């Protein structure tokens, strides 16, 4: 299975600016946008913040909450999405966080992702849980695909 998610091209180049904060997906989501011609017209940049310290320093997430949930929660995803819009000055931010492998002690691979519109202050949230056996890069690709779809579906509703 290819690591980079196979995604349809955006129907039109967005009229808004976009930035991305990634943890679990480690750059795959950003790569899915910049691999398309015209990305420089709307894509301002991305931050791959893999550790709690980098999420706090670069994206201004709440360290106490993040420590309690091992950086995997809807709130962490929301704070990352908002933080990346503030870092780049973009209208829209997308963020991903989660486990690419089963956590110690058991459980399934899982992720939270969020899209934030800095103009309206609204969020769209996504959650995914992979049951059964998943390879690390399959998880990363699946979460990148789902986060991008959440973004695309929401933007389609904008006038």
What is the structure about, briefly put?
This protein has 159 residues and is of the alpha/beta class. The protein has helices at 28-34, 52-59, 63-68, 74-88, 136-156, and strands at residues 18-22, 43-48, 92-99, 109-117, 122-130.
Structural features, described:
The chain has one domain (18-156): Alpha-Beta Complex (Maf protein), CATH 3.90.950.20. Helices cover 36% and strands 23% of the residues. The protein has five helices and five strands, in the order E-H-E-H-H-H-E-E-E-H. It has helices at residues 28-34, 52-59, 63-68, 74-88, 136-156; strands spanning 18-22, 43-48, 92-99, 109-117, 122-130. A five-stranded mixed β-sheet has the order 2-1-3-4-5, sandwiched between helices.
SSE-based structural type: alpha/beta
Number of helices: 5
User: Can you tell me the CATH class?
Assistant: Alpha Beta
Poorly predicted residue ranges? none
Find the CATH topology. Answer: Maf protein
Helix content estimate: 25-40%
Overview features:
single chain; 159 residues; alpha/beta; Maf protein; five-stranded mixed sheet; 36% helix; globular
Outline the fold blueprint.
Blueprint lengths: L17 E5 L5 H7 L8 E6 L3 H8 L3 H6 L5 H15 L3 E8 L9 E9 L4 E9 L5 H21 L3
Protein name: CinA C-terminal domain-containing protein
Pfam families: CinA
Organism: Rhizophlyctis rosea
């Amino acid at each position: 299975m290819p690591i980079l998610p196979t995604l349809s091209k955006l129907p039109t180049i967005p009229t808004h600016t976009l930035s991305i904060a990634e943890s679990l997906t480690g750059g795959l989501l950003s790569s899915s946008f910049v691999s398309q011609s015209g990305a420089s017209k709307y894509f301002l940049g991305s931050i791959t913040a893999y550790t709690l310290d980098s999420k706090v320093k670069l994206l201004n997430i709440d360290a106490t909450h993040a420590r309690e949930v091992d950086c995997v929660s809807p709130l962490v995803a929301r704070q990352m999405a908002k933080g990346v819009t503030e870092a780049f000055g973009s209208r829209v931010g997308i963020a991903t966080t989660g486990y690419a492998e089963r956590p110690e002690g058991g459980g399934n691979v899982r992720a939270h992702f969020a899209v934030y519109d800095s103009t309206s202050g609204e969020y769209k949230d996504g959650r995914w849980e992979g049951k059964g056996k998943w390879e690390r890069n399959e998880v990363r690709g699946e979460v990148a695909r789902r986060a991008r779809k959440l973004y695309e579906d929401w933007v389609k509703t904008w006038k």
